[in-house]
Each structure stands twice: as structure tokens, then as C-alpha cells.
Amino acid sequence: MFVGRSQRAIDAAPPPPPRPARGGARRERGGPLPPPPRGGGGGGGGRGGRGGFESPPRRERGGGGGGPHPPPRPAGGPGGGKKRGGGENKRGPPPPGGGQKKKNPPGGGKQGGAPRLLGGPGGGGGTPYLSGKEPANPIHVYLEIGQKVIFAGALTWPGWCRLGRDERAALQALCDYGPRYARVLHAAQVEFQPPADPSGFVVIERLIGNATTDFGAPNIPPSDDARPFTTTDVQNAQALLRACWSAFDAVLQDAAGKTLRKGPRGGGRDLETMVKHVLDADAAYLGRLAWKTKRSEAADPGTELDRTRRAILAALAAAGRGEIPAQGPRGGALWAPATFVRRVAWHLLDHLWEIEDRAETP
Q1: Alpha-carbon span 201 to 141, nearest angstrom
Q2: Nearest to 352 by CA among 165, 183, 156, 188
Q3: Among residues 119, 177, 225, 361, which one has the fewest Cβ atoms lying within 10 Å of its Cβ?
Q4: Can you point out the beta strands (E) in 79-182?
Q5: What is the pLDDT of residues 281-316, one digit of tens each?
Q6: In whole angstroms, what is the distance from residue 348 CA to residue 247 CA?
Q7: How is 45-94 classified by DSSP, letter by letter?
Q8: Residue 151 contacts residue 213 (beta carbons within 8 Å)
Q9: Measuring CA to CA, which residue among 159, 161, 165 is closest to residue 188?
Q10: Phi-psi bin for 67: left (phi > 0), alpha (psi -120 to 50), beta?
Q11: Do strands 201-208 and 139-145 pair parallel, antiparallel, or not at all (unpaired)?
């Protein structure tokens, strides 16, 4: 309970003097209005003029000043929204996605939001054929367009995906790596014939990338990945991944005892760290299918690779039976099985080719 002066002392104290009102005499409650000041600016409660000069209408705080008031701004309209303290924000609502507005990516369109089609046959955004006409045996590709880089990926050949500074550079890089991708598949008796030049590609989809795209990893799946994952898809995906694993093991064996050339700043993983990185990434990718796997740091890397690969094959088989949920236990969206295969194959081949390029002959 508040403790202060006694009620008797409060009653005996003289009343405070009346406060003078701004702009004129004080009006008693219920009494007549006082006369307006001479030379005033028009309006009760406002400041009067000085020395007979007429003052322009002025608006006072509290709404009693002279001059008309602008109409209140509607909530949610221009200048509406919330400000930091819970009131109205004079600057208006923030742009979608929060933060500052981002520049358009090199291929057009705005950043953020769900993947959407930017161009392709019937979709606008330029011709999908570099030569101006459709090739005889086209390879359908999609483009993932970031702020700094663009990925070009083959739609029906997971793992064959390369980046460039613009669309033509990305498609040229994809073409350059075609023979290397073919060697991986031919070792597993998978028939594949890459095009001789980028004119053999047909761009059927252009997607808006994100920060992961600019970081150097494809992260926006093509819309074709959302289709049902059939038993045939499971068999094809398992055969493709087995071919990639076989090629990766052969490169590891060939690079044993060799030094991996460092980058211009002395960076780059060694062989042992590279294998550990692939294992960590595969475990994270399995989590995007709600498939759990445990790693043992003390186990032999070869044993860990074999166990992780068995888990991947089992997860794909479960996906073919429709046992992979669309959302995780906490409500987060999971990957489509085709997206999972695309990412695992790309990541493995990317490091496989890195080892080939960096391995130095002793």
C-alpha cells in the first residue's frame, strides 16, 4: 500500500492556482467561450497573432489548433503497418521477406519465395535453344539463377550440374563436364552420350536461386522432382548412385599417397578431410528424408562409407513404397526423393572431380 501524506494534511492544503490556457483566457467549465484574439490564426485553442499580423493556420498537438487536419491514414494502406513500439509505421510495411530489398538476379525476376518458372517453352524469358532451333536429340536442362552465379543442371541425369557467371557460361561448363560424367556412367554400363556443344541443350525451366546458390551449391529443385517416385525411379536412382560411389572409390584409391594441390590462398581439404566431409553431408541429406543414421568417429572411413550408402539405398526403397512423409516431425518440409538423389550425386561428383583436378603426381 502506498505510504505518503495523511488525508488530513491533503485536505488542509490550499488548492493550486489555475493554469493559464494557451492562446487566450481560461474558460470555466460550462461557461461562454472567450473572444478570439485579435489578429489570430483562426481557430479556438490555437496561438493568436502578434502585433496585428495574421498568422497562418497552425495545427496544435492534441487536435485543437487552427487549420484543417488531414484525414487519418487507413491501417494497412500507404504509411500503415506497425512500428517498433506497436504504433503505426510512417515508412509503411516492410518488403516481403523482410530486410532490405534485393536486386534482381542476373536472369531476371525477384529473389525469395517458392521456386517459380522464369522461362522456357511457353513460359517466356527468352528462347530455350542456343542455336535458335530445337536440336534433334535434346537434353533438357534447368537453370537456377542466383545473384552471383547460375547453375545449369540436366533434368534426367542427376549429378550433372555445373555453375557459371551467366547462362551461357553455366551451359558451357555443363557441356565441358559431359565427357567426365559419361565416364562415371560407362564404368557402370550405363549408356550416356553427352552433346558436342551447348546447342544440344534445351532450357525448359529457369528458377530463382537463393543464398545457397550464391554460396556455390544448387538448392532449388526443378518442378519435375515433385512427381511421384516410382519403383522404376528407385532402380534408376540406385544404379546411378552406385556408379558414382564406384567412381569415387576408384579416385580415392588412385589419389592415395598423393598430395592435393592447395588453392591460391592455401585452402582446400586433404583426402581424409574430404571423405569425412562427404560422410557428414550424406548424413545431413538423409535427414531431409526423415531418415536417421548414426556415425562413429572411431570407425574406419571405409566402414562408414559402406554403412551410409546402405542407409541411402534403404531410404530410396522406402520412398518408392511411399513411406517418406512430406513433412518432418516438427512440421518442416522434407525433400522429394528425386531432389535427394540429385543433391547426393552432385555433391559426390563435385568432390570426385575436385580430387582429380588437385591430385599431384609425386
Answers
A1: 6
A2: 183
A3: 361
A4: 139-145, 150-154, 161-164
A5: 999 999 999 998 877 777 788 899 999 999 999 999
A6: 10
A7: TSPPPSTTPPPPP-PPTTTTSSSPPPPPPPTTSTT-SB-TTSSB-TT-SP
A8: yes
A9: 159
A10: left
A11: parallel
Residue pair 237/158 in contact by the 8 Å Cβ criterion? yes
Q: Can you tell me the distance from the alpha carbon of 147 to that of 214, in angstroms, rounded to the nearest whole number?
A: 6
The CA distance from 186 to 180, in Å, is 10
- What pLDDT is stored for residue 221 in this prediction? 96
Give the SS3 label for residue 8: helix
Least Cα distance to 155 among 247, 209, 227 occurs for 227
**pLDDT one-digit tens code per residue, 336-360:** 999 999 999 999 999 999 999 998 8
pTM strictly above 0.70: no
pLDDT tens track for 223-248: 999 999 999 999 999 999 999 999 99
**Phi and psi at residue 291, in whole multiples of 5°?**
-115, 120
In whole angstroms, what is the distance from residue 95 CA to residue 97 CA? 6
What's the grid cell of residue 318? 522406402
